[in-house]
Design a protein that fits this description.
30% helix; Alpha/beta knot; 2 domains; 224 residues; binds 6-chloroguanine; 7 helices; alpha/beta; elongated
Length: 224
């Protein structure tokens, strides 16, 4: 997979891809991340990338020309499966979306800022708009990192067996059951007997029951 990330603040996204599992995915060549600083496509001496909105509302709007130049340049080099705009107006990210994106080859993530991008960029280039939840961030960069993380960890070879994505919360629309490790007893707090029993079918049943119980308590909406 290749992800091209367009942003005015690419430095905000460097460390996640230089650390731990995402770094290993990059080092193994399972994913390529390419940052594109929109400022390099800015207009004039001041490399302008935003301007006041027509109609006179508050805030600034990211201009069409730098964005169109940047995206068109990328598109001239390869075919992209999706051009994704990170915006609070988008569809809320969930596991199903991450699963679908993880099957694709080439993605562009465009990080929004200010009051958003000129509508014509959306009409011309954007194929998907994604939000990471109902709250507002200073820009799309952290959301782009969240989206990239959720997708990259699903690529074959990224996780090892113990970290397997198949038993994640949400992968089967259930939250995860509680987990325990040694010691079996700590200050009078005991690990549930069944987990020490060695009876794997009983353990499976117990874990499933706990997952249902927790999901019913915390996220009944997932059981609909
Ligand atoms: Cl994608 N961008 C911004 N600025 N805020 C958000 C978001 C995205 N998703 C949730 N809040």
């Amino acid at each position: 997979m290749r992800i091209d990330i367009i942003s005015v603040l690419p430095e905000l996204m460097e460390s996640p891809f230089k650390t731990s599992i995402l770094k290993r995915a990059v080092d193994k060549g399972l994913v390529e991340i390419h940052f594109h600083n929109l400022r390099n496509y800015g207009l004039g001496k001041y490399r302008q990338i935003d301007d006041a909105p027509y109609g006179g509302s508050a805030g600034m709007v990211m201009m069409i020309e730098p964005l169109d130049n940047c995206i068109s340049e990328l598109k001239s080099q390869r075919n992209y499966d999706e051009v994704i705009y990170l915006t609070p107006d988008g569809q809320t990210l969930n596991q199903k979306i991450a699963n679908k994106l993880s099957t694709l080859e080439n993605l562009i993530f465009l990080c929004g800022h200010y009051k958003g991008i000129d509508q014509r960029v959306r009409d011309l280039h954007i194929t998907k708009e994604i939000s990471i939840g109902d709250y507002v961030l200073t820009g799309g960069e952290l959301a782009a990192c969240v989206l990239a993380d959720s997708v990259i960890r699903l690529l074959p070879g990224v996780l090892n067996d113990e970290q397997s994505a198949l038993t994640d919360s949400f992968q089967d629309d259930l939250l995860s059951p509680p987990v325990y490790t040694r010691p079996a007893s700590y200050k009078g707090l005991d690990v549930p007997e069944v987990l020490l029993s060695g009876n794997f079918s009983k353990i499976e049943d117990w874990l499933h029951d706990e997952a249902i119980k927790i999901t019913r308590e915390r996220r009944p909406d997932l059981l609909q």
